[in-house]
Amino acid sequence: MELMTRITSFEDLKKIKSSLDSFDKIVEEVKAVSRDPVEQDQLLTERIVFDLIQSQARKAEASMSKQNNYNQEKAASTSAGNYHMKIRKQSLGSSKDEDEYKCIEEKVSKLIKKKQNKAKKAVSMRSALSSIPSPPPDMPTEFKNKIQSLHGFRVQLVIQKEIFHTDLSTHHDRLSMPKNQVSNQDFLGEQDKKKLKLEGSIRVKVIDPNLNEYELRLSEWKFKSRSCSGLSKSKRSSSFVLNSGWSKISENKKNKLQRKDIIQVWSFRVNNDDNPPIYGEERLCFAVVKLTDTDTD
C-alpha cells in the first residue's frame, strides 16, 4: 500500500507499466550485487520505489505552476482508497481508461506481492533445509533386513525431505518428491520411464516406517506456474508422486508421521513375480524411513 500511494495519476501507472518491460534486466542487476534472496527482494523494492520517486520529482517540477505544495502534501496524506477514487475522477476520461487503470494497478500490486511472498518462501525453505541432516544417514538395519528378505537389490536414496501438510492431507492422498530435490534421477529404469510416459503412472511396492507393505502408484506431475502477462515469464516444475493409497500410510497412527518430520525415500528392485511380467523382469519398490520426530505447532 505504501508503494501504491505514491502513484498519483493514470499517466504514472502507464509509465510504471512501461518501466516493467525492463524488469528482468533490473532483477539481473540486483542478483549481480547480492546472492541473498531476502536482500535481493529489498534491493529490488528500493529500486522500484527510487524510480517512482524520481518520476514524481520530475512531474512535480513540470507542474509546479499548476499545483502548490499544500495540495501535494494533502494528496500524499490521503488514505489509499479515497486517494485512488479522487485520482480516477480527475485523470480518467472514459470507462476504457478506467479499465486500463485497474488492469495496470492490479499488475503492479501482484508483482510486489509476488516478490514479497518469494522472499518469505526463501526464508522458510532455508529453515527447512537447515533441519535436514547432511550428509544423509545410512538406511537403518531393519530396513536393510526387510529388503533382503524380499530379495531386493540396487538400493539407492531417492530423496530426503521434510513432511509438509499436503503430504498428510487425505484429500491430496500423495507424497510429493520434487524433481529438483531428488538426489539420484537414475532410480527410474528405461521401462519405468516408458510406462510413465505412456500410461501416466506405474504400480510400485512401498514399505512404510513400520515395515508394512503397500501397493501404490508412482506418477510424475508437471506444473506450470501462473504469471501476470507482461511482467514475468512462466516457469515449469515437476514432482514424482506416490499416490493411490498413500493416505493409508500417512494416516496409520503407528507410523506417527507429522508435519515437519524428516523422512527418506529409498528405491530398490525386486524380481517381477507377475506372470507375464507387467513391467519387465524387475519391479520398482520404495521404502519410507522416518528420521526425526517433530512436534506440530
TrEMBL record:
The keyword RNA-binding does not apply. Keywords: DNA-binding, Nucleus, Transcription, Transcription regulation. This is B3 domain-containing protein. GO terms for molecular function: DNA binding. GO terms for cellular component: nucleus. It comes from Prunus yedoensis var. nudiflora. Pfam families: At2g31720-like. It comes from the Eukaryota. It is found in: Nucleus.
